## 1
Amino acid sequence: MGISDEPAVAEERTVPMGREAPLPIRPLPKPFNPVHLIGPGIALTALGVGLGETYQWPRLVIVFGPSVRWLFLLGVTVQLVVMIEMARYSMATGESIFFGAARIWRPVMWFFFASALFIYIWPGHMAVGAQSIEDLTNGRLGWYPVAAIGLLVVGVVLTIAKYVYRVVESVLTLFVSILVIGSAIIASMVGSWGDLWDTLRGTVALGGTSPLPSDWFTEAWFPIVVGAIAFAGPSGMQQMWYTLWLRDKGAGMGSYVPRIAGLRGLRDVEKETIPARGYTFDVDDEEEMRKWQGWRRWNFFDAGVLFWGITMLTTIIFTVMAISAARVSPETATLIQEGEREAALDGMAAAFGSVSGGWTKTVFLLLIGVIGWKQSFGLFDALSRGQADMTYYFAPKARRWSMSRHYIVFVWVIILFGIGTLSWIGTEDGPGAILDILAFLSAAVMGAYCLLLLFVNNRLLPQKLRPGLISNIALGIGVLLYLGGTLWSWLVMGALP
Amino acid sequence: MPRGPLAGALTAVVTGGVMALLVTIAGEGAASFTAAILALTVPLLAAGVLFGWLTDHDRLTFGRALLYWAAAFALCRLAQELLVGDRELKDGPIGFLLYQGIVGMLFGLGYLLLYQQVLAGLHRLFGEPAAPEAEGGGPGQG
């Protein structure tokens, strides 16, 4: 495999960008059809619609009432803007946002490298999903072996793929379709118009309960609330990894960078030359700018309809189910308030079972299990992808291996470490504790990437490609919500999950 | 049978099959729920075939497809309730249909995603090349 480190030839036009090599100008490819279903947006949605929407927010609704859901709407909408801004950088340069961080200052990129490992050491999603399977089988299948086997399956699937992104996209799309159809069927059986109306009113902060309950500002709940805001939509570094999926999809200038391959595609992909940096296009050419607007439309659909739409609809439906659960089983709310975290799953499942003869309980528990697995699948792909990207481009001597080889090694290191992590913390405090830690840490790094986006897109990108005022305000709100919330919780309240 | 209606039918059957499987796993005795599952699956099957036909003839955009499922799912649930339910609709007929229609939009999103996967599978099975970007067809094809 080769890498083109050669300096730009004299006549080649380049665009300087930050501290790294300037980007050569190439033609911007023609945009995809804006109306689409299968793409990076649905992969991110598959990750985004996870335990935050189906477990953490319903749990808050059970305890505090539907009026607290306005904060979810705010969180998801900020995430929508973040997603669009991530895509702006990636489609304009063909680089990941990590490369953008390096263009500011390489230690910033290494901060995200370390953060990713530190946050995703905890396989919280798999743990909670496996616990749901334990509940489903009345303890016959223990959560730990289920989680460990689930992690190994993730590793095998990612390793034997020919082109990894294609497999990830297909698997996540299949799983999210099962999740969406399954939850729609349960909700159609157990919910009602009244529950839906309460949820919709709560989403815009109108309702019988307080939109800002005083209990939220206690040591017990504040870190969990901060984590839940982070889990509204894609949490942690998922948005940063979206830029890597966009590149493998060939969106915008990403079409100039080779894809990540598994073992079966390794030989083919290693024949291709990986450029030492991305490319950009001529912003003074009207035709190029017209194509750029086409790519933006494609991304708006990806982010606005697929991500925002599905996330909002799914979470509204799960909240309806939570309200219905609380009505049928008021003791569930009491147990959670007393600190029985796992009671949320048991209570919701029991409530659904009581409504329709038991089978909706099974569907619900299976859905939580499915969510846990597919999220770990997507997260470990993306985590390995991001770490491989940063290692390949910026670690000394790393280019002796292809990026795909780095990817496969990271997949297995993370999975084996994850299995070890499960046995270390999970058996002490239970899977729910891992999830709370993950959510809380996610919030801190999300605040950091909002700051990064503000800087990268406003300072590094050419003037004509920079974001507008509304996007910048939304990113500022993101900094306050995520970073401000985490620091307040930790430094002022002294509260950690 | 043209690919679209076939994919529409298969997707509906998969949905019904999953429900049956779940009931069985739950140990509820599939027999006692067979009528309920059939009463939902059969109307969904009809709606799925029509959906596939409309898609094949380019009659459905993404937005129209969601509206189609909002209406079709609500009617399917109404049929199920009237055929095998206790015939007491929650919130009355209008409230019931409104609620089921909104849930139906979510169902429609999931159905569209699954439909595209099934259609892509049919293309692979019968050798017809998939669309370049979405590897499938229908509303939302990229």
## 2
Amino acid sequence: MKPSGSKSWLVLCFLFLFLFVAGWQIFTASFKSLPGPWPVAQTAWEFLSDPFYDNGPNDKGIGTLALYSLGRLSLGYISGSLVAIALGVVLGLNQTLFKALNPYVQILRAISPIAWMPLLLYSVQSSGWTAILVVFMASVWPTMANTAFGVASIKKDYISVSNILQMHPVSKLFKVILPGAGPTIVAGLKISMGSAWVAIVPAEALLGSLGLGYFVWNEWNNLSLTSVIFAILIIGVVGVFIDILFSTMARRLAYVD
Amino acid sequence: MELLKVEKVSKHFGAPATKGQICVFKDVSLNVAEKEFVAVLGHSGCGKSTLLNIIAGIETASQGYTYIDGKQITAPGLDRMVVFQNFALLPWLTVYGNIRIAVKAAHPDWSRQQIHDWVQRYIDMVGLTGAENKRPAALSGGMRQRVGLARAFCVEPRMLLLDEPFAQIDALTRGVIQDELVRMWQETGITIFMVTHDVDEAILLSDRILLMSPGPEAQIKEEVIVPIPRPRARMTIIEHPAYYPLRNRIIRFLSSRGESRQTAATVSLVA
């Protein structure tokens, strides 16, 4: 038996990758209609060798498209998260309000953000803004629920300390309440980011606004399945990088009681 | 000069109209003079921590009044700092940050340099020099309570409220910190109100001990003055002729659950 330490997981990790690619190859070899790993790799190389080309409004490099999606994502996500944290703090501090609003929040969070799209599109009359608002709707609920929970479950002693010191409400918020609920809030932000990233792809696809989702749909219309598979991989990889960002943030805000 | 006055304070838990209401303690009255060190001794569950929280202003009395310096207590204030049994340090801040937050709250108009000097002064006073940048989780119980004491002393309150401050500290460290508390108490001329269930600790530290009967409807049944002169040392205090009679009397009170012996009041033990 090898010691269950350091690098054995990495070996296993690459083994799984190999098995996946091999399985994919065998599968596509028997069903000739789907592209195998090799043509996808070729397409990937093509796209990635020139990620930021610009041939007019509807033909841009994959890097540019990813930046479009990320820009929309950031705008909708950051504004959604700010609203969510503000509301969450209010609900976390006021249990009566929390109980009164909770049924509605539960209904709202059960609605897929994509379902809002027609209504939003009709209201703002702009596909770009609609995509941002869809991301906004996807971001709000998990962060809000977690913030309210995190704030409500801050140890009573910490609040007592801030009361005994007669801290100014603003410094109480930034020095005690937000750091106290910090780890729970970040967990919510992470879930929100997941659902925002999941929502932006269909939103862009349906709205036809430039971005990764649009790219997937466009390549489907071109019947270029290799590009579709490549785009799926890119969406996954970007998602992983976003997740790593949040794990780093969570580690920074974590505290031991 | 009388600093703290507690007048017929009672505390009930549960809604007042219902029959399930529990009276934790009833008609508790006490006075603490300026620069005095008073301890309340009682079984766990007699509500002594609740009494302390009412004086701190973080809980409210069901009946009765509390005054500090003649003013009625309705809310927490920087004139009454609490030292908690479980330290209640903010775990996301360092030692320095935990003390700084208190200094900043007490002196919002001070410059960065003034605040820094003040924080450092109290870190040095409790012997935590060098541990400024550690988080509470990296400290032993004794060191955590040093931070708690520094945080309380640094705002220069009129009164220190100690809620079983040494209960979670190992016995060897406890003695050292008790000595330091006495030193800081004498240097600063502060008034201390302490709640404890440790008889030896109460005798070693306080001028006067109030004995509380067990709850429900707990009351302060007896008051004893500790006739042992200061400075008191843990090693020599037991040799003082008044030590064991005093200790036995308190133990007898606590084991009789506060029912009997109401007659022998303070007189016999006052030196």
